[in-house]
Amino acid sequence: MIVNPIGLLITIGFTSLVGYILLWMLRPPIYVRVALETVTKGEEEMQGSIIVPITGTALSERLLEIAINFAQRLKVPLRFVYVMEIPLVLPPDAEVPREREKGERVLLHAQVVAERAGVFAKGKLIKARLAGAGIIQAAKEDSASLILLLLSEHPEREAFIGRSVQYILRNAPCDVLLLRPSREKAA
Amino acid sequence: MAADELRKEEGPSLRRAVSIWGSFSWGYAGVGADIYMALGLVLAFAMGAAPLALFITGLLYVLIGLIYTELASSYPVAGGGQYYSLRGLGDFWGFLGGWAFLLDFTVDVSLFAYASAGYINFFFPQFEQVKWIKIVETLLLILLLIVLNVRGIRESSRLNEVFCGLDMFNESLIIIIGFLFAFKPDLFIHQITHELPRMGQFLYGMTIAVVAFVGLEAISQAAEETIRPASIIPRTSLSLTFVVLIYALAFSVLGIGSLGWEPLAEHMHDPIAYLAKFLPLIGFIAGPFTAILGFTLLYASANTGVMGYSRISYSMSKLQLLPRWFSGVHHRYRTPYRTILFFSTIVIIQLVLAGLSKNAMETLADMYAFGALTSYTLVCVSHLRLRIKDPYTPRPYKIPGNIRLKIQGRVVDFPLLGLIAIFGTFFYLLLVLITHYWARIFGPAWLILGLTIYILYRKKNNLPIFRSLRRDWVNEQVRVLKEAGEVEALEEYIKALEENKDETK
Questions:
Q1: A21 — contact with chain B (CB < 8 Å)?
Q2: pLDDT per residue over B49-67, tens digit each?
Q3: CA geometry: angle at B333 spanning B327 and B338, to 5°?
Q4: Touching check for B278 and chain A: CB below 8 Å?
Q5: Which residue ranges make up each domain of chain B?
Q6: Pairwise CA distance, residues B281 & B283, whole Å
Q7: Where does A41-186 sit in CATH, by number?
Q8: A1 and chain B: CB distance < 8 Å anywhere?
Q9: Pick from B168, B193, B173: which is nearest to B257 by CA?
Q10: What is the mean pLDDT of chain B?
Q11: What span, in angstroms and rounded, lies between the C-alpha atoms of B370 and B349?
């Protein structure tokens, strides 16, 4: 059987064109691949994650940056946690639509930032009386390897350990890393 | 994910689970099977000029593909073309666009079920000789689809992905083996220089070639279920557009260069399987295998038609474009059984009427081309209108060839290629009306029937006929982007709205 040279040329053209198109399609930028992982991978993949409490403030943005850096080096998933604090005057399962909306927005933002950096992350909205209790709950559910916290700053520029941080330090089921933000960067 | 948790609490919503290959496969299920049915038809009319007819029509198809890519990634909702027409042109034209899609989907069912019966007849060639046997075969296939859809079946994304991969492998193998061992350059040159149709025939062939590229809707229909649609849809939709064009051109060149146009035109019912049968080395297995695959793909494509018309008419009813009766859901199976039964009856009528004509497949293809071109024309016009009316929605992909203009006080990226697409689709629509006998009669008749239903319904319910009902598109867009997890696009959209607060009030 003789191979036709013109046919061979067409075959080469056809396979390279279709191959190139399919490769281009199937090799999207890193953030798309991570976004796909986020949806396709189940909750069991979050075991051993780093817990990152976020609030949507400038300080929380800094924590997000640090957490992504950690995750890239340690190759572990990030679990962003937004705690909706339910005031004592309300029942524990009360709906707080504004808080929920804010939490959802903040979590989605964190997720997109993580995806852009190529880090696998998932978000969680938790209702609790105290932010610290919500974070501990998330750490237990994920069998987290680490809780990452950033100290807030006192008006007199001294690191300030709040009620929630103290609660976490007392009750954490895993390592807790407490960071003080760099003043230059915070500025 | 938080958004997922929220959605669970808010009620049923389409789950975002379609990945890159999944999105491509959804589109492929809609448009990939077309060549199995269209090749013989195009060859029968355009003869040796079939590759040219497919190429010229393919250029228009690429433009439409680019427009769909832009719209589906900017408005990732399940409605597809009907939604774009409604949003861009308002209720009246939105209805007309939807009604044209309904024609397309109904003909899709009769045509693809008929074509899939043709591939069954690869094994029973004697059935192909008696037209009414094939009509009865098709009728049985359609009845099975009706039963399955009324009882409720979900088209499995995974199954789509497997069939898409299998088919692409098989088609590629046929093309590669064919060009390496069966392609005769002398025969090809002879065909494209001596076996040419008359101009009228060629134009007819060009319009029939449209049916090789219908079904781009599918990716946009699945957009609401696609993960990160803004990033994924441009990739999958562009790839699909070009891959389908390459396959169509490759098959037409291989067909006339290995067997000549006549034998394939005679085997209009199973051209790809017939071509595969004559391949050296693998022909003995490739023929039957391609016939089975062809049947499966075409039948799955017919099923997307049933799903398409039930979804669109249900949604049109909810949007007060069709009577409320159409949104009835079966108490036991929870399926839109009324729309399925109503439009399936139309499918059967179409099939029987086509059976009375000289060539049922050609008649159905006529109608298919008319429906597709009417709806595509409206989608192209909507695309242009949305660029002007809604310049603030972030567009992750924009068709190339834009000039910045100030229209109605707004800075707009005016799409020159979009304008060419409008003229192109309209020109093709006119060609269809001029050259296709059945489309000239039944196409406009279908639109008149739809308009009568629309006018009577709107009048009875004291709703405006030509004016649109108030719809909150801004909040709708916010919801869509939020559910898609497209936070950056959402922030960009809100920022643009705030900057132009006075205009958007």
A1: yes
A2: 999 999 999 999 999 999 9
A3: 30
A4: no
A5: 2-499
A6: 6
A7: 3.40.50.620
A8: yes
A9: B193
A10: 89
A11: 17
Three-state secondary structure of B298-319 = HHHHHHHHHHHHHHHHHHHHHC
Contact B203, B273 (CB under 8 A): no
Instruction: Identify all chain A residues contacting B178, using CB atoms and an 8 Å cutoff.
Output: 7
Per-residue model confidence (pLDDT) at position A183: 65
**Pairwise CA distance, residues A146 & A143, whole Å:** 9
Beta pairing, strands A146-150 & A175-179: parallel
Domain ranges of chain A: 1-29, 41-186
**Amino acid making up residue B300:** A
CA-to-CA separations, B163 to A83, B117, B178, B220, B244, in angstroms, rounded: 45, 18, 22, 20, 15
A35/B2 CB distance under 8 A: no
Which of A102, A18, A114, A35 lies closest to A71, judged by CA?
A: A114
**String of DSSP letters for B125-151:** HHHHHSHHHHHHHHHHHHHHHHHHHHH
Q: Tell me the nearest-neighbour CA distance from A154 into chain B, angstroms.
A: 31
Phi and psi (nearest 5°) for B148? -60, -40
Residue type, position B279, single letter: L
H helices of B75-130, in order, are 81-89, 91-120, 125-129
Average of per-residue pLDDT across B5-27: 62
Q: How confident is the model over A125-169, as pLDDT tens digits? A: 999 988 999 999 999 998 999 999 988 765 555 556 778 888 999
Short-list A95, A87, A103, A127, CA closest to A54 = A103
pLDDT confidence tier of residue A57, bands split at 50, 70 and 90: confident
* C-alpha to C-alpha distances, B377 to A3, A163, B63, B429, nearest whole angstrom: 45, 63, 12, 8
As given in the structure block, the two tokens for residue B277 are 């049968």
Q: Which residues in chain B are closer than 8 Å to A17, comparing Cβ atoms?
A: 246
Q: Are B347 and B340 in contact, with CB atoms under 8 Å apart?
A: no
Nearest Cα residue in chain A from B249: A14
Across the interface, of B176, B178, B485, the residue whose CB is closest to A108 is: B485
Span B85-120, pLDDT tens digits: 999 999 999 999 999 999 999 999 999 999 999 999
Q: What is the mean pLDDT of residues B5-15?
A: 39
ipTM score: 0.87
Of B362, B435, B358, nearest to B40 by C-alpha is: B362
**Residue range B2-499, CATH number:** 1.20.1740.10
Question: Residue ranges of the alpha helices (H) in chain A?
Answer: 5-26, 30-40, 58-74, 97-116, 131-142, 163-171, 183-186
- Could A4 and B488 be called an inter-chain contact, meaning their C-beta atoms sit closer than 8 Å? no
Number of A–B residue contacts, CB under 8 Å? 114
Residue B395 has, within 13 A of its CA and on its CB side, a CA count of 19
First to last CA, chain A: 76
3-state secondary structure of B280: coil
CB distance B227–A107 less than 8 Å?
no
Give dist(CA B56, CA B165) in Å, integer: 28
Nearest CA in chain B to A46: B1
Instruction: Give the separation between CA B422 and CA B426, rounded to whole angstroms.
Output: 6
